[in-house]
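Example record

One chain of 147 residues, shown exactly as stored in the release files.
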Amino acid sequence: MAVSFDIAAWHVWLALGLLLIIAEVIGTEFVLLALGAAALATGLVAATADLGLNMQLLVYGIAAALFVPVFMTFYRRRFKATGTRALVGDGVWRDAEYTVVEYGSRHGIRIDGDFFPAASTEGDPLRAGELVRVLEMRGLTAIVERI
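Predicted structure tokens for this chain:
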């Protein structure tokens, strides 16, 4: 007795959509979430209408072209305005002393509870417990001098 598993196209779209939405957890600024939503929308259309593969791909492309900018705009307005970037950009680290801490195998400083890797202006490695002053931020790396 042979068991038959018939997979309809909308099953594939549904699985792809769910995988992309789950993958969004790694932090891709809602791009995968938007692509997952586009795949789910395509699956919904494919389940209700008898479309060939070319039309399904066209529906997916249109849905992705609509969803990605909308989701990314929402993400940037809602989540990017209040984060580490605002903290570092405001320069709250200026004229303050910090103690070097070890986080995993990296050395850095904590500013308001957030860990930032640190690099010495002298180029030699930092040790946990040293007092430093931040001279500048290069991306998320604090360029520090020993006190």
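Notes: Residues 82-87 have pLDDT under 50 and may be disordered.
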